Amino acid sequence: MKQPRILIIDDEESLRHMLSVMLRRQGYASDTAAGGAEGLEKLGQRVYDFILCDIRMPGTDGREFLRRALEQGVTAPVIMMTAYGTVDTAVACMRDGAYDFISKPFKRDEIVIVLKKAEERERLKEENRRLRSQVQEQCGFHGLVGRSPAMLDLYDRISRVAGLKTTVLIQGESGTGKELVARALHADGDRADRPFVAVNCGALPENLLESELFGHVRGAFTGAVGDKAGLFEQADGGTLFLDEVGEMPPPLQVKLLRVLQEGEVRRVGATTSRSVDVRVVSATSRDLAADCTAGRFREDLFFRLNVFSLALPPLRERLDDLPLLAEQLLQRCAVRIGRSSSSRIAPEVMRRFMSHNWPGNVRELENVIERSLVMCDGDQVTLSCLPALGGPGERHEETEENLSIKRAGQAMEISLIRRALARTGGNRTHAARILEISHRALLYKLKEYGLE
């Protein structure tokens, strides 16, 4: 087993010696430095597992050492030591990135306890990294599942652009997992520890969407009782995901273009702008190029958003991934509804899945699996549990159930309602208009079909 190595930084020689002897008896190897500058030199010569550093030292003090060490990319836990009872300073160090602090004079076992806690934390972090690596190797990439050529190409393109601030446009049919791709872009880049903020541009009316994106000041409109930061400000330093950006009203398209060009936002009702550092990722199920030609979407905004494009393949074009994807969704649904984690899909059901066209893509697959789990009495999803699958591409024997006009009509209504809600981002009023039924009728059907 590797012997943990510690760097001890303190301007008191007697304390450095005492800590070195004590930690050697506890199984640690140690190096010492008389100040922050010497400590930084040591970091350039050797990799340490832990660092003990005094806060008050002449020259380069503990806070300055911590700042410069983190700038150099040091990942070892740094434990600050202070003899002055200035807890505020120690807490400030923790805000700056220190793991913990301990006050002098301290008992010998206090240092050991803190180090053991840090050691356990590092062990758990490494275990989590190993498990995530295994899951990604077996299943996919940052939550995306699949090893088909189309998905492997997608992972490669994500990796190429993840670390850049380049705007990315994700295109794909409804239900293909565009938000998962946006989250993978964020998680794989250098903004992973900063905010990821998502908004569906088709789910909010124009005036509310403007306030959500850019914020507002007190008195800007009725109900604006105080200042509010918008999503651009909330995502500062991180990523803002604009889902269904093609549904954004034209007046807001102009304001979004201005933010992308100038890196500044102005709250509704404000007279000054604020600088923001935001990586914008957008997604759409529409053909934005055609919308530009038709005058429904600004061409200059399209070019600004579409600097780098990612196209998501529909499920029907990557059926090789379906068995693994179905098993992943089965376990997720089982946990969500409280069913056994040993639930499994019968081979004949998997064959039925492989013959279906999946017009609703992964979202439809997850819906079918969850409904099947609800209908199953045991741990296995069988054909008797399976809801009727409609749409082109499905090839299975005709039964009385499949020939039912009533059931076919219900399935068609459910499919149209889902598509309308997906198109509008869940906005029921807008969906009712698309379906050409009243809002009350839509609410009734949502309740009747259990789609709420």
Automatic annotation (TrEMBL):
<dbReference type="Pfam" id="PF00158">
    <property type="entry name" value="Sigma54_activat"/>
</dbReference>
<dbReference type="InterPro" id="IPR009057">
    <property type="entry name" value="Homeodomain-like_sf"/>
</dbReference>
<protein>
    <submittedName>
        <fullName>Regulatory protein AtoC</fullName>
    </submittedName>
</protein>
<dbReference type="InterPro" id="IPR025944">
    <property type="entry name" value="Sigma_54_int_dom_CS"/>
</dbReference>
<keyword id="KW-0805">Transcription regulation</keyword>
<dbReference type="InterPro" id="IPR011006">
    <property type="entry name" value="CheY-like_superfamily"/>
</dbReference>
<dbReference type="InterPro" id="IPR001789">
    <property type="entry name" value="Sig_transdc_resp-reg_receiver"/>
</dbReference>
<keyword id="KW-0597">Phosphoprotein</keyword>
<keyword id="KW-0238">DNA-binding</keyword>
<dbReference type="Pfam" id="PF00072">
    <property type="entry name" value="Response_reg"/>
</dbReference>
<dbReference type="InterPro" id="IPR002197">
    <property type="entry name" value="HTH_Fis"/>
</dbReference>
<dbReference type="InterPro" id="IPR058031">
    <property type="entry name" value="AAA_lid_NorR"/>
</dbReference>
<keyword id="KW-0067">ATP-binding</keyword>
<dbReference type="InterPro" id="IPR025662">
    <property type="entry name" value="Sigma_54_int_dom_ATP-bd_1"/>
</dbReference>
<dbReference type="Pfam" id="PF25601">
    <property type="entry name" value="AAA_lid_14"/>
</dbReference>
<dbReference type="InterPro" id="IPR025943">
    <property type="entry name" value="Sigma_54_int_dom_ATP-bd_2"/>
</dbReference>
<feature type="domain" description="Sigma-54 factor interaction">
    <location>
        <begin position="144"/>
        <end position="374"/>
    </location>
</feature>
<keyword id="KW-0804">Transcription</keyword>
<dbReference type="InterPro" id="IPR002078">
    <property type="entry name" value="Sigma_54_int"/>
</dbReference>
<dbReference type="Pfam" id="PF02954">
    <property type="entry name" value="HTH_8"/>
</dbReference>
<feature type="domain" description="Response regulatory">
    <location>
        <begin position="5"/>
        <end position="119"/>
    </location>
</feature>
<dbReference type="InterPro" id="IPR027417">
    <property type="entry name" value="P-loop_NTPase"/>
</dbReference>
<feature type="modified residue" description="4-aspartylphosphate">
    <location>
        <position position="54"/>
    </location>
</feature>
<keyword id="KW-0547">Nucleotide-binding</keyword>
<dbReference type="InterPro" id="IPR003593">
    <property type="entry name" value="AAA+_ATPase"/>
</dbReference>
